[in-house]
Amino acid sequence: MCAASSGIALHGGIRPFASTFFIFTDYARPAIRLAALMELPVIYVMTHDSIGLGEDGPTHQPVEHLASLRAMPHLYVIRPADANEVAFAWRAAMMRREGPTMLVLTRQKLPVFDRRKLGAADGVLKGAYVISKERGGSPDVILMASGSEVQLILGAQEKLVAEGIDARCVSMASWEFFKDQPKSYRDEILPSGVKARLAVEAGSSMGWREWTGDAGDVIGIDKFGASAPYKEIYEHYGLTIDNIVKRAKKLVGK
């Protein structure tokens, strides 16, 4: 499948895409790497992206895959947070011709965010954007996440505000697209003066320190998953609103 997509891209005239479970990038890696090496504009749509897969257990739950694929040169990875972000992720993939782009999608149901109250989903085209602003002039803490964990940081923001802690929420759908933006934009989204930063992702924490800094923190999964209903396994690994609030309060000294 993935190898055939590269062949089609080399032939030209058709824009190929391939799709399977995210865990199976282990088998597809040689073809994905060759597409990246040749800078072929193949689009990969990978699903069942985390421990949210649930009862199938650790053999089918990708944990280290986001980190390892983000490390691959020329491959751009996008992990959208809702249906609107998926639409713009697909647009970003179609517009990009300098190499392969991978959309990484969840298995579990996710809410469709009310964009009348939150940031516009076209921010995905820039890789990261403020999905929910702080109330004051500068945030006390920045919460950042990708994919299915964006809903968690939004829930945590509400609780933190109720406790007098002003939080900004950033949807970081694609590190690669974000790195392509001017420094002025990156500083606007992640102002250097705000050292209290917390990243949340249902995968390896490797790489997130680039965005949180040494003074920040990461809630991730640096071990293999387990077999359980996804809500239970999320709680087991600390991917909950209450734990995000707890870790954010620690960062701001409260």
Characterise the protein shown here.
With 254 residues, the chain is an alpha/beta fold. The chain has one domain (2-251): Rossmann fold (3-Layer(aba) Sandwich), CATH 3.40.50.920. 35% of the residues lie in helices and 16% in strands. It has 10 helices and 9 strands. The strands form 2 sheets. Strands 5-7-6-8-9 form a 5-stranded mixed sheet. Helix 5 (150-162) crosses helix 10. It starts with a helix and ends with a helix.
Topology at a glance:
Layout lengths: L1 H10 L5 E5 L3 H13 L5 E5 L17 H6 L5 E3 L4 H13 L5 E4 L23 E5 L8 E5 L4 H13 L4 E6 L2 H5 L3 H7 L7 E4 L8 H4 L4 E3 L10 H7 L4 H11 L3
Helix pairs in contact: 5-10
Main features:
254 residues, alpha/beta, Rossmann fold, 5-stranded mixed beta sheet, 4-stranded parallel beta sheet, 10 helices, 35% helix
Helix-strand string: HEHEHEHEEEHEHHEHEHH
Shape verdict: globular
Major beta sheet, strand line-up: 5-7-6-8-9
Top CATH class: Alpha Beta
**Count of extended strands:** 9
- Quote the beta fraction: 15-25%
In short:
The protein is an alpha/beta fold and 254 residues long. Helices cover 35% and strands 16% of the residues.
